[in-house]
């Protein structure tokens, strides 16, 4: 280091050869800070995702995590949507009031959370509009897929005590046997991965705070997760199939959990694609499996709402697909506002019909 | 490994660091050997067996060029790369076409198409022909010739670097310098932005529409083909930028491969601005040897048409590419008949640009479609005002915006420099000041958060 510099006892450099380098390092530092601020600003419009943390405050787990309450969010990764997390940490226009009776409780994944959709276009918001005398409350949250929803159904009922309906959603009737056995054996599964798990638990508090504040860093993390999740998904080789026996036991467990206090509706919204002739094809589950699943629901006094026909009708008549947005793959991804509306309308028909 | 992969980033860092160490402590020869090994590693990363083919083409070019005065050996130097290309790329295509004609299934051979074969065989040809034409001396140094043919930035998808442009650079003392690196790294980042942010996001939409064209509304079909014209430009010019940037970082210069092609006023001008390295290669090594414009008008038109037909076939073993080449060939002949004069009337200029863009975009339908049936469905859907899914794809509009901004910047810059014709430029900023550094870092950040994370190989890899 000091080979070419004239280093004197006084601790000062007589030779200024380091000065330009120090200058340049300073410029890089300033530029990094400026660039970071600009990127943070851009991220606020692009993806101001609600921050999620562990649901440690609750004595029983309704969902494995929920969002920081009262925070605004903006999504533009798929479509465009914005809203505000309510005081309870879920996506609802109205705040939660423990004194107010919940009539219908929506339990599900990012599809019911209305991920990437404007809060006003969600199934929950639409149902609240349609059913003027009933209060529909949503605790749907990302990654809370059907098996997870069932595991958490008991604490959800205890906390929100819905009077009329509990509505669950699923995109597939096929699961691995392991997933189904887990539901039957455990009251609640292990923690699901969310933004709070993994990295956040292992880093220091200050980094966690910085990460929480930085939308840009959260977006970078999301991109990396997307890249790595593709590799892990492809290596997963558990057999996914429709197991009639286990499915019946699970549906029966739901029936026993609700104890005739409320009615249960399962919304089945299959993923779809277009074939080369432009015809709509439903993915994941075979038609026969869906029919058998529907029959098992009937046996356990559960309404089964199959959205296949409505999706097909809407496509063939109006060329409208329930999934996908203007900036992603056509007909794939999360439910768009049309999809939410279709589900809300079909649910409305069932609820009104039952009345 | 693809340029748009973490593997390549690691590889490139290792190459840069290795070259820096070598240029400080070892001779130029060690650097050449190191770059040659790195290039073969880069190529072998796809499939190590490909390296043998590359080596075979290199050896044949090396020896045949040495004995260029013996006609038989010179012909061999031309024939060997063509046979290699013909066998690996076109054998099954011609066999299937022949089967269809005779109505008897002759089967196909299980041949893997080596990545970048079209590019390095053309470079090998350019070397042998240039030596024969006495444009360049015979390269007696096998390592240098091997490095020219395998140099990793241009190996798999061009640009097609001619021997007379690159071999002299290998003889010079080229080094990694701060200035080269600052320039090169910007080209890489801008190229990556074009590729993994703009082109890859658009591929999602275009792939879906071309998979089921009958499902979409005519406006969506129209948007799709316009989007494809952007996608292929951003994809390929992005790749060229990365290649040029990588070479620049290492101290070598490649020529510009794109120059605002969609501002062309006629198809002839378009081919002077699009994939310039291929256009000039076809002109120098195919069109001129065929007779060029030296043997009368009719012969010139035939030569142009044949050149474009073969240029189309070079892009892929499919009749749709041949048809695409044929359409461009006809348009070039038409241009020659019209004898364009440069107009200063802005309305006429805009009209010419619009007409040329429409024609080129129309021909892209055949370039993109897997077969004529799909191309026909797209065209029919547009002209019959087909009803179907309406999809206003966001990334198409964003790409259009980027294209307009870049074009306006280019026009302003050309006016400032008082250039008659508009020249595209690489938007290089000064990384010695805070503004330049900030812009560059913001670009890097945008690349991280907007990058498409799905699978989408470079369009030109298939060629």
Structural class of chain B: mainly alpha
What is the 3D shape of chain B?
globular
Please name the CATH topology of chain A: Rossmann fold
Measured on Cα atoms, how large is the radius of gyration of chain A?
25 Å
Low-confidence stretches of chain A: 1-13, 188-195
Counting DSSP H or I runs of 4 or more residues, the number of helices of chain B is 18
Proportion of beta-strand residues of chain A: 5-15%
Structural class of chain A: alpha/beta
Summarize the structure.
The complex is a heterodimer of chains A (355) and B (463). Chain A has 355 residues and is of the alpha/beta class.
Give an overview in words.
The complex is a heterodimer of chains A (355) and B (463). Chain A is of the alpha/beta class and 355 residues long. Chain A is built from 13 helices and 14 strands. In chain A, the strands form 5 sheets. Chain A has a 5-stranded parallel sheet with strand order 7-6-8-11-14, with helices on both faces. A 3-stranded antiparallel sheet of chain A has the order 1-4-5. In chain A, a hairpin with a 5-residue loop joins strand 4 and strand 5. In chain A, helix 6 (177-185) runs parallel beside helix 10. Chain A is globular, with a radius of gyration of 25 Å. Chain B folds into 3 domains: 6-176, no CATH class; 180-265 and 369-462, no CATH class; 268-342. Chain B contains 18 helices and no strands. Chain B has helices at residues 6-25, 28-44, 49-66, 71-102, 117-132, 142-150, 152-155, 163-171, 178-211, 218-249, 267-273, 276-290, 297-315, 319-338, 346-368, 372-383, 394-416, 434-450. In chain B, helix 9 runs parallel beside helix 18 (434-450) and helix 12 (276-290) packs across helix 13 (297-315). Classes of the chains: A alpha/beta (355), B mainly alpha (463).
């Amino acid at each position: 280091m000091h080979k070419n510099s004239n280093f004197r006892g006084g601790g000062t450099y007589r030779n200024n050869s380091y000065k330009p380098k120090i200058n340049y390092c300073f410029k890089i530092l300033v530029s990094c800070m400026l660039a970071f601020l600009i990127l943070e600003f851009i991220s606020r419009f692009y993806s101001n995702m609600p921050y999620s943390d562990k649901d440690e405050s609750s004595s029983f787990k309704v969902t494995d995590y929920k969002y920081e309450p009262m925070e605004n969010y903006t999504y533009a990764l798929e479509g465009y949507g914005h809203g505000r997390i309510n005081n309870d940490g879920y996506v609802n226009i109205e705040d939660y009031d423990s004194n107010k009776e919940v009539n219908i409780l929506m339990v599900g994944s990012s599809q019911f959370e209305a991920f990437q959709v404007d809060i006003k276009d969600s199934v929950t918001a639409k149902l609240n509009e349609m059913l003027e005398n009933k209060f529909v409350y949503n605790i749907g949250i990302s990654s809370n897929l059907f098996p997870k929803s069932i595991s958490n159904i008991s604490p959800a009922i205890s906390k929100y005590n819905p009077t009329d309906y509990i509505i669950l959603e699923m995109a597939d009737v096929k699961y691995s046997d392991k997933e189904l056995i887990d539901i039957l054996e455990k009251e609640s599964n292990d923690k699901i991965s969310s933004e709070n798990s993994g990295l956040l638990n292992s880093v220091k508090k200050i980094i966690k705070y910085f990460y929480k504040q930085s939308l840009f860093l959260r977006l970078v993390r999301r991109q990396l997760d997307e890249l790595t999740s593709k590799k892990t998904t492809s290596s997963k080789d558990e057999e996914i199939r429709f197991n009639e026996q286990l499915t019946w036991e699970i549906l029966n467990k739901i029936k026993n959990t609700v104890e005739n206090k409320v009615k249960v509706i399962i919304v089945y919204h299959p993923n779809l694609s277009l074939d080369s002739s432009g015809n709509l094809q439903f993915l994941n589950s075979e038609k026969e499996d869906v029919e058998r699943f529907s029959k098992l629901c009937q046996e356990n006094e559960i309404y089964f709402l199959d959205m296949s026909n409505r999706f097909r009708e809407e496509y063939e008549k109006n060329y409208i697909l329930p999934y996908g947005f203007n900036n992603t793959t056509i007909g794939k991804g999360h439910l768009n506002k049309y999809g939410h509306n279709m589900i809300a309308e079909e649910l409305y028909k069932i609820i009104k019909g039952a009345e | 490994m693809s340029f748009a992969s973490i593997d390549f980033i690691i590889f490139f860092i290792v190459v840069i660091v290795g070259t820096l160490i070598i240029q400080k402590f070892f001779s130029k020869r060690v650097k050449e050997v190191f770059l040659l090994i790195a290039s073969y590693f880069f190529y072998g990363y796809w499939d190590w067996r490909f390296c043998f083919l590359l080596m075979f083409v290199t050896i044949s070019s090396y020896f045949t060029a040495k004995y260029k005065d013996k006609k038989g050996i010179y012909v061999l130097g031309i024939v060997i790369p063509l046979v290699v290309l013909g066998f690996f790329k076109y054998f099954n295509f011609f066999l299937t076409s022949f089967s269809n004609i005779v109505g008897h299934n002759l089967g196909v051979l299980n041949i893997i198409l080596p990545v970048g074969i079209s590019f390095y065989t053309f470079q090998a040809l350019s070397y042998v022909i240039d030596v024969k034409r006495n444009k360049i001396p015979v390269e007696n140094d096998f390592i240098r010739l091997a490095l020219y043919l395998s140099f990793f930035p241009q190996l798999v998808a061009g640009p097609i670097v001619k021997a007379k442009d690159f071999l002299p650079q290998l003889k010079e003392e080229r080094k990694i310098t701060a200035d080269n690196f600052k320039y090169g790294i910007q080209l890489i980042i801008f190229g990556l932005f074009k590729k993994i942010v703009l082109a890859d996001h658009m591929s999602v939409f275009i792939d879906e529409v071309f998979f089921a064209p009958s499902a979409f509304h005519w406006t969506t079909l129209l948007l799709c083909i316009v989007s494809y014209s952007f996608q292929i430009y951003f994809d390929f010019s992005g790749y060229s930028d990365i290649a040029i940037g990588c070479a620049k970082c290492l101290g070598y210069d490649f020529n510009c491969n794109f120059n605002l092609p969609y501002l062309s006023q006629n198809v002839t001008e378009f081919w002077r601005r699009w994939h310039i390295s291929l256009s000039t290669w076809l002109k120098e090594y195919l069109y001129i040897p065929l007779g060029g414009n030296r043997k009368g008008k009719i012969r010139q038109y035939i030569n142009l048409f044949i050149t474009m037909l073969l240029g189309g076939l070079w892009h892929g073993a499919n009749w749709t590419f041949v048809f695409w080449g044929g359409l461009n060939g006809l348009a070039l002949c038409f241009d020659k008949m019209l004898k364009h004069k440069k107009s200063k009337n802005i309305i006429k200029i805009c009209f010419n640009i619009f007409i040329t863009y429409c024609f080129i975009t129309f021909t892209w339908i055949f370039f993109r479609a897997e077969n004529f049936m799909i191309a026909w469905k797209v065209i029919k859907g547009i002209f019959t005002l087909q009803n179907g899914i309406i999809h206003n794809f966001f990334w198409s509009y964003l790409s259009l915006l980027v294209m307009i901004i870049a074009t306006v910047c280019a026009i302003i810059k050309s006016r400032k420099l008082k250039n008659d014709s508009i020249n595209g430029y690489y938007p290089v900023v000064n990384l010695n000041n805070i503004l330049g550094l900030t812009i560059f870092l913001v670009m890097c950040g945008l690349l991280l958060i907007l990058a498409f994370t799905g699978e989408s190989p470079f369009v030109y890899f298939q060629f």
